[in-house]
Amino acid sequence: MRAAKRRTSREVRTGNRFAVLRAMYALGTPTRQELAGATGLSFATIATMVTELLAVGVVTEASREDSGGGRPRSRLKVAAGRGLLVGVDATETYVHVDVFDLAMTRLVHHDHAVGEGTSDPDRMVGEIAEGVRSALAAAPDGDVLGVGVSLPGQVEPDSGVSLFAPGWGWKDVAAQALLEERLDLPVHVDNPLKATTVAELWFGHGRRVAHLVTVNLGTGIGAGIALDGQLVRGATNNAGEWGHTTLVMDGRPCRCGRDGCLEAYIGVPGLMAQFGERHPGHRYLEGGSQTHFLAAVREGLEADEPEAHELVELFGEQLGVGLANLINMVNPNLVVLTSWAARDLGRWLLPVAEARMRREAINGSAAVVDIVTSAVPTNPVSTGMAAFVLEGFLERVGLPSPTSAPLRRLAEA
Amino acid sequence: MRAAKRRTSREVRTGNRFAVLRAMYALGTPTRQELAGATGLSFATIATMVTELLAVGVVTEASREDSGGGRPRSRLKVAAGRGLLVGVDATETYVHVDVFDLAMTRLVHHDHAVGEGTSDPDRMVGEIAEGVRSALAAAPDGDVLGVGVSLPGQVEPDSGVSLFAPGWGWKDVAAQALLEERLDLPVHVDNPLKATTVAELWFGHGRRVAHLVTVNLGTGIGAGIALDGQLVRGATNNAGEWGHTTLVMDGRPCRCGRDGCLEAYIGVPGLMAQFGERHPGHRYLEGGSQTHFLAAVREGLEADEPEAHELVELFGEQLGVGLANLINMVNPNLVVLTSWAARDLGRWLLPVAEARMRREAINGSAAVVDIVTSAVPTNPVSTGMAAFVLEGFLERVGLPSPTSAPLRRLAEA
């Protein structure tokens, strides 16, 4: 068992800096007074933090206005040109790279296809590095503050190690070190659901809601939890392994080695297996491709084919029970769906899933929860990874802060 | 959907006061310097908070020692005699009342049996009030700072309303108001699992561990979650409804109305039903009493009766899967068991449950979690309710603070 994580006094004292930055992104060009109002911090605290952020060039003065005879009041903004943030969503089939300026305007979007071949660390790290270099080649000149790379599976951001990535056969791979060697840039690694949740907190529904859960439906099934505006990591960054909670004890075998996990049912391979048992050799399953399967089901729904409706019904009921479990455990205000399976089938799937969830979740929790799609305008994984890079940069220049400190009262700003 | 909860600037600024008080309970007679070390707060912040706590008489000077020529350094302690805190664990069959001094020394323990009869609000409130009056009659004179009453089911502490207590047939009962009318004392109501978790944070394993989950096994099944040293309530105080997550989709009917909930299997009535299906009319089930059943199973285990072992095996496997789900969602350092079913059968039950949990939970989370019994020396429910009363008292005297602010770095103190 690990003891409580060590925190320095300075970390505790500066714990609200990120609330200020998040408020700045949300408000655009706020005054110090408006930042105090939005964060709930005192004017004196805000003034100190703004001075620090001005000193490292992360914030700049947007304008100065006369406040009616008194001291002129300046409006502040994030210093867009201070540097570039690179966010990477690395998956088994593609490497998606976004380059942002510091105002989080996306300057470059680059998709790097990962061809067939081994997925040993050397090759995959090479593919990721190539994607990043191509993206940066297309970006305007600027100080690259760091590269945030989302890796599938269990990732330990502090040590930079990929503990376990089953799809790639990785175990204890020093991914951060390998990437830094190739790129000669500071690299931060994390898990896609943590990145998605931070993106939602900073740039999406987290601006107005305290407790939210992001849900990914795809090959894998997972969740990211934010409570009181803060990302929940748990003891070892594994909180939110919703896909490996039980739908049926001793049920269908899951690729994780357990039986009966939610993912074994509603992960796309699980859906294909369930469908195949009912309709062996059906054309939706041709070639065994997950993308083809979902596209075929979608076409089937549009053409009103009964087996497509049957599948969505099954998927919706199972998803609804899973969502109710999540809601019963966490009691969030929002469940945010951020995935391709949800996007492709959502119109048919969500009404079934939501109805089942509302029957299954306890009343007091069902009454206050909404299910929505992501409000992050860019790829939430790469966007969240870029936010982590910004945190890392502030730490390197002497302004450490805990990951995604709460954004208080912004809802009332 | 509710918006993020409103917080005043003052609440945010004073958010660390409880960390100071918790450190004081843990350290006994610390200096201001030691409090700063234990909480990670600056000496200046500590000095301000201690001044406030001295002013309202909650803290007092324990001793003053010469610090070698410099300014004398005083040791502080909680002012035991400042007043009495009453904690009440109200259940369907008994009302358990503890009276504490402010140093949380238990002065009186009183068990009030609730006889047969209706469980309408008037009668139950009367029983609780009678229990409290009897306990206070036995206590030394003192200023009663408040009464904390744990009520079963869904409770909304802010409004003081019991939203739903299925065992009593309560729905939207203004419990706090009814109790205050009878007792003429400030009353705080909450749910037993929230109280248990706060007790563990303040006086138990929470002193050294950041992320813990308390688990109750009894008629009902539930969990209380603490992350980063803070109680997790969720949007409407319903986080931790672990008993109503799924063990088997569409499985055994649960008293909550859903099918397949964990509680429908391993709540004591569920265990009795499962046992009865395998051994109809068995003497363990005589009279249908849950207490009798558990005692008979325990005797059966001691006498090595195969059907007792069979039951514990079934219970352990189902509990193990449930624990793995909890651990996969929350990724805690500790699971703390605090219940009669665990106490009576623990010696036989826990090895089975833990082995199954370790097979089922994902590796990175299973590797860091321990299962232990509570380290709270008194009844955790009434102890936690007394801690809530102390919070409420500080709020009334102008020192508000969020519920159980994190206790940082105490592990290294």
UniProtKB/TrEMBL annotation, chains A, B:
One of its GO terms (molecular function) is kinase activity. Keywords: Kinase, Transferase. Pfam families: ROK. It comes from the Bacteria. InterPro entries: ATPase_NBD, ROK, ROK_cs, WH-like_DNA-bd_sf, WH_DNA-bd_sf. Gene3D superfamilies: 3.30.420.40, Winged helix-like DNA-binding domain superfamily/Winged helix DNA-binding domain (1.10.10.10). Belongs to the ROK (NagC/XylR) family. This is NBD/HSP70 family sugar kinase. It comes from Microlunatus capsulatus.
